[in-house]
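User: Could you check the structure of this?
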Amino acid sequence: MGISRSRSPTGAPRSCRSISPTPKNDTSFFGPVAGRVAGRIARGRFVLDGKVYHLDINDGRNTLQGGGRGFNKVIWTVKEYVAGGDSPYVTLYYRSFDGEQGFPGDLDVYVTYRLSPYELGVHMNATALGRATPVNLLQHTYWNLGGHGAGDVLGHTLRLHASRYTPLDAEMLPSSGRGAAPVAGTPFDFLAPTPIGARIRGVVGGRVPGYDANYVVDGEPGEMRPVARALDGASGRALELWGNQPAMQLYTANWLNHTKGKGGAVYERYGGFCLETQGYPDAVNHPEFPSQIVRPGQVYRHDMVFKFSF
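Assistant: Sure, the predicted structure tokens are below.
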């Protein structure tokens, strides 16, 4: 995500993930917001108000993370920056234009990163201008509570407040009509604290062993509620995530491959994990899923809070 500075120099928190096979040391998904529609859209097409829209196809036969020039590769403007006080923050802005990557209508997007003692809040909103459009923003963040150079995260224990998940096919797309399935009795069950690596060989996240799975968060969508809690027993560090979206993607860095990172560290497979609140995958082509359509004058709101302890 590029940034232009209209006020004080700053930057958004750096972190995140690469989610499909990429060349070595491709770090284009380390840190950005994904959009206009994160995740995959089958065959790069959808129908809205009777019109067929064709998107940029950049993942086999499908569109991934908004297309080849999604929100992770555009220039964002710093609209507001407050460095001092108990709750410093930065607000970034981007105007997505009508037809960008094939999506209809102009879209005003704001993302605010706010720090407070032991918390990081990420607050995203988007307003459709003139035409209806799908919106599903996502924050890509890699976490390794042992430290970014501490090796894999398979020993971290994870609890998810999600009793259902959406089964995906070989192209990482949901099967039509299947909806959500119970996690009980499957390798996707993290209702009780469980090491991430305990059953990881039993799942395939995009053709390699690992999680790249969408979970349905328990509770009422639109309300802030607990989503996940992770703990690294070696360091004692813990992370708790709260959010207001209907779903969350668990990703275990399945495609990291000798990727050079900060401080000379090299990141390998399972070197981090991602907890990405979002809407359902490919919702634009699945009427059984909650709608992601934002109409003119409506505001899409997506909030998450990461809480840290040790």
